TrEMBL record:
Family: Belongs to the TRAFAC class myosin-kinesin ATPase superfamily. Kinesin family.
Protein name as it appears in the record: Kinesin-like protein
Species in which this protein is naturally found: Toxoplasma gondii
Keywords: ATP-binding, Coiled coil, Microtubule, Motor protein, Nucleotide-binding
GO biological process terms, semicolon-separated: microtubule-based movement
Coiled-coil residue spans: none
Domain Kinesin motor: 1-176
UniProt GO cellular component terms: microtubule
GO molecular function: ATP binding; microtubule binding; microtubule motor activity
């Protein structure tokens, strides 16, 4: 138990980028230092009101961290059994993070997250987005960085259960495998990517234009065909009326003929 809780996690990030002027290539590195807030047992602290809400949010984020560690450990075990790389089963890390470290406070409940390991293995899903804390540490946990985890335990016997739980959490975290590598961005690769995106955009615009032109042409042809058909029908009707009048047919007969013609 912490005598004075900080009521929050501390996250400090340093990002350094190196650009080669001749080629335009760049290297990006990030150092992330995290000091996690200690967990709080309501039965021991007696927190109420705002402090109770803050403590519950701290415990929730630590619980999410425990779920992520359990999921990554399960994936690492699955990968080792199948003889494949762990990183192939994990979601690809989007942001560069070559070096990271974070400290776990004493009495942390992160290891007590109720996670079904079998379901995690089946789905290969790591719940990074369940918490802002795990989202920030996504690349440090199972990503392409070097990660150092420091566990803090209490020597008091009254906190024995929390200390044991913290050590068990560290034991599970040791099974998580990262794949450290340099974050190098090639200038020609970025240019090629931009050209491909531009080509795809222009291709989509061209297809949309062709579709609109074809639709307009089709509707115009249909309207023209209907107009010509109506004109021919009107002309035929006039010719029929003239013919019937020349033959001096009775009025009711040629009216009936016109009616049948219009119905047909």
């Amino acid at each position: 138990m912490n005598a004075d809780s900080s009521r929050s996690h501390f996250i400090f990030c340093i990002t350094i980028q190196e650009i080669v002027l001749n080629t335009g290539d760049s290297k990006v590195g990030r150092l992330t230092v995290v000091d996690l807030a200690g967990s709080e047992r309501v039965a021991k602290t007696g927190s109420m009101g705002v402090m109770l809400h803050e403590g519950s949010m701290i415990n929730k984020s630590l619980m999410c961290l425990g779920k992520v560690i359990n999921a990554l450990a399960a994936l690492a075990e699955k990968s080792s059994d199948s003889g494949t790389s762990t990183n192939a089963a994990l979601p690809s890390a989007s942001s560069p993070l070559p070096s990271s470290s974070f400290a776990l406070p004493p009495s942390s409940p992160v290891q007590q997250a109720p996670v079904a390991v079998s379901s995690l293995i089946a789905s290969s899903f790591v719940p990074y987005r369940d918490s802002k804390l795990t989202r920030v540490l996504q690349d440090a946990l199972g990503g392409n960085s070097n990660t150092c985890l420091i566990l803090s335990c209490s020597q008091d016997a009254v906190h024995l259960s929390e200390s044991i739980s913290t050590l068990r959490f560290g034991q599970r975290a040791m099974r998580v495998k990262n794949s450290p590598k340099m974050n190098v961005k090639r200038a020609h690769e970025e240019a090629e990517f931009r050209y491909k995106k531009s080509h795809q955009h222009l291709e989509a615009e061209y297809q949309a234009f062709v579709s609109s032109v074809m639709g307009w042409a089709e509707s115009t042809v249909l309207k023209f065909a209907k107009t010509q058909t109506a004109k021919k029908a009107k002309k035929t009707k006039k010719l029929l009326m003239r013919k019937m009048k020349r033959e001096c047919l009775p009025t009711h007969q040629w009216k009936m003929a016109l009616l049948l013609f219009s119905l047909g």
